[in-house]
Amino acid sequence: MNRAKGYSDEERRELRRNPYILNVSEKSITYAPAFKLAAVKAYEAGLSPMEIFVKAGFNVDLIGRRKPKACLKRWRDIYAAHGSKGLLEERRGMLPAEHPKSR
After folding, report:
1. Looking at the 3D structure of the chain, how many domains does it have?
2. What is the pLDDT of residue 101?
3. The pTM of the whole model exceeds 0.85
4. Number of CB atoms found within 10 A of residue 17's CB
């Protein structure tokens, strides 16, 4: 599904019911840090990104069938660079000098 047009009010309400979502705007989803870490660990244990998101109760037709793979790729990169702390701490809005030092 193409999300270029954004999520409708009804779609945002549906997404907010998932306990692993902290916030949904018209164009983006903010996932719970604990879910990000659990998803990376589940991936390392052999589950596919799609399996992880479906087991967590996500409607992949709503969020987009490519979203699980893209999220896991991004989260795995963060995990590789910064460990679990990188997924559990908010890093957006920080200048590069303000980012916590890697491990």
Report:
1. 1
2. 59
3. no
4. 8
